[in-house]
């Protein structure tokens, strides 16, 4: 009988087995091979959380890895990177832009800012290169070998802007062995998803791999606004991406070149005006007629276009006891996104004066705006020395350089009278330069106990300027020509100490203390401001304590990892978004306290049945007696208000910070005929969340439970493997708001509806 997908769990062990065959006696080899081929054993998961390949069970950091079939299943249906939301304990992902500009939250810490210059405390690293600008973070996930989520501060090895944690993507790398695949899926809303890759050796030392992606959906959302009726005007996209890699492997030198690009042509996220029932967070208000209907007066002009391009070169020099690694990265992005932000038609001010219609419900002020990045460049350089000593002491030391040039353009348009003419314009420019020196030092006190000490000095400098040449509120006296500029800089010494104790061969206990910072941030929301609109948030710092256990149980058929943590963040950078004053400003909170736990487990219950279960609890609290923020115009605020009518947010939890997250997957398979039949299901639950810093009835997201399933049949020939499957996402068709616009009407962003599709995949080897 041939080996099919159920044996994928043992492939990592088999690979390790082959690499050491020559050193084993026949008796030892037979025993090890039998153990490796036992399909009730879990595979060894290798991660690069500390910039070297390690068994995840031996890393003194909270790490969750997604790979293989689980990663394939949860990204089905042409999903963008938001498929990771609540699929990993303590990790949330959301966006008010749609398929680009994802916002990551880890252990409750994140940034709900929608500014194209926003920094985030959760860093994203793709193939060893940090993706700083939020537009870069939306690159599609395809032909990826593994996703790693590292909880807690990661400021010594990975540097700037990692106080909350790190999400790391590693693509499938070239090898001398030929392999290729093509997968095609088609489903709801005429959505197609085509992926393909081919790789292999070109010479004895040079190999290559090219991967491509094409995701397509036609517009399917109808506009019913009076005078603007149009079918199939929103909701569609064409998202294309490519990655080309070359790997040279010599006796003492390796070089990996990576080129990647993306071209997205689609529509922005859909906004539903007054979708909430009055004094409720349930959908069903005046503006809600289902996901497939909007009431916009500018839907025909909505568009979102993104182009990104980048390259990296990784060089490894093997000097025997030492390895020198150089990683050079270049990234660039261009964006233009235009949307009806108020989600309705007309405006209250025009009803009496001009007899213009308005709806659905009360639309106090109309807003059609766009933001663009006409120019962006990011350059990174890391140079690292790693020891490979045979003794108890080893280390990594290095230097890092970061440079980014960013230009942002913001526009406002006339909407009420239907012209769409430009009424406002602002240009922003920012130059960022950062550099660091770092080291990580490991010492084995005994066979059971080891410790790591990391330290990093970072310096960060930003120069920012903006210029408004056309004021959208000029008819109210807002001046046209307003300019501003500001420069901020800071430095910080980040450090961490971790201790790991191997209590038994199958149980590791660790403890970790870490400190790091996020450099100052600048925002220039000057389109509707009466002055230059510039606000600055000072550096935030975090001190985190964590302890955990990593255990292999049930004779290798089970794995249970758990951690508990506590942190205090000083001067946390936050954004007061919107409010009835229609402004967004940066601010600092005196202190934020968070604590909780994470659980990640996996079991091979039988040869045919595998399950995973994950859970996290996060409690966050703002401690600042003087912190208050503007509130919405029509929602029901539940926080106390100060004398200026602003909400006092002392004691509130952080936005988009669910207390509870649960994840569950199960896979059952059975050999039938010459192939394998399988059923896979995955479920994710996240607790209630607040969309903004202040708490209100309408802008509170209910708990959300979403599940998916995939069933199929796989079979092999001598050189191909085939897989035909049916799948469904959000199978219960849960329908609720997952975000909102803090504006003059209660505008909602809604989750994806049920998606049903079929997929065919063929792999060549």
Automatic annotation (TrEMBL):
* Domain called TonB-dependent receptor-like beta-barrel: residue spans: 261-713
The record gives the membrane topology as: Multi-pass membrane protein
Alphabetical list of Pfam families matching this protein: Plug, TonB_dep_Rec_b-barrel
Q: Does the keyword Membrane apply?
A: yes
Q: Which domain of life is it from?
A: Bacteria
Q: Which family does it belong to?
A: Belongs to the TonB-dependent receptor family.
Q: What protein name is recorded for this chain? A: TonB-dependent receptor
